[in-house]
Amino acid sequence: MTEVENLPRLSIASLGGTASMQADASGRGVTPSLDCERQLASLPHLREMAHLEVATLCLVPSASLSFVMLLDVLAWARAEIEGGSQAVILTQGTDTLEETAYFFNLLWPFDAPLVLTGAMRPPSQPGSDGPANLLAATQVALAHASRGRGALVVINDQIHCATRVRKTASLSMAAFESPGSGPVGELVEGLAVYRQPPCPRRVLPLPERVGHRVALLEACLDADTTLLQAVAAFGFEGLVISGFGAGHVSSAWSDVLGELAAKLPVIVATRTGSGTTARATYGFAGAEIDLQSKGVHMAGQLCPRKCRILLWLLLGTGQQSSLCTWLRH
Q1: Which residues bind substrate (predicted)?
Q2: In the CATH scheme, what architecture does the domain 214-327 have?
Q3: Cβ distance 51 to 7 under 8 Å?
Q4: Is 66 within any annotated ligand binding site?
């Protein structure tokens, strides 16, 4: 058997995003237009690293992705692994990269890596980072040390776990961090170097229903309770609050959240961007002790956006009763 025939099989798909964007003649900015094959055109040596299975699953800015679309992407990725691929790489926009990575991580049942990447600069701009990030994603995906880690985000030569990664800057090339823990690894001369071995993972089954909705609202100074009071009436089946500080709300919000918690799951996370919610420190109305006494769940280290994804999937699989154990996970 020749060396080429010994190459591993790697599946790469594009969902769109900045890495796929070009400007048209209108001069109105870049939009998704490059399919996956054209994104790979500047990286011919990837085909010396692996047999590539290439697909363009959609070409949209990542803000327009939906849970249903992601389930279709997941079905494709699962079929690729079951068909013999060693790993899967997805390229997409960075605006929702932290959310889609966490969504996939909760549903990815394989030891094979699922690696997500994107770009902060489109291909038409000097210093475009898309090709470098795609090369790094390939190096991570093919590394044996990447197995058993679920979904990974590879960008700017750093490797982030899906649970912790956050987009913390709007336009900076160094836009992604994992607050409180840092990246789990990095690329060093083309090698994936991890700081610790993989941890045991917990995976959800595919959701049995997809039509349910979970609301996400942010606490802010002097906010009234009108929207809160409408959540149940509008048919939402869950609620996540992006709360002040260590997971706090006003006393007026606390009263309404207590009423809602008797009808549907309610989570309070922190809006700060780093750190955990408290559990037993503050005793005022609207603080964590008060909220928990009313049946509200504290998010711990999980950010508000990822809390919404977790709750949506738990509701879709009928496992909302296990929410507490997932928030401690």
Answers
A1: 62, 94-95
A2: 3-Layer(aba) Sandwich (3.40)
A3: yes
A4: no
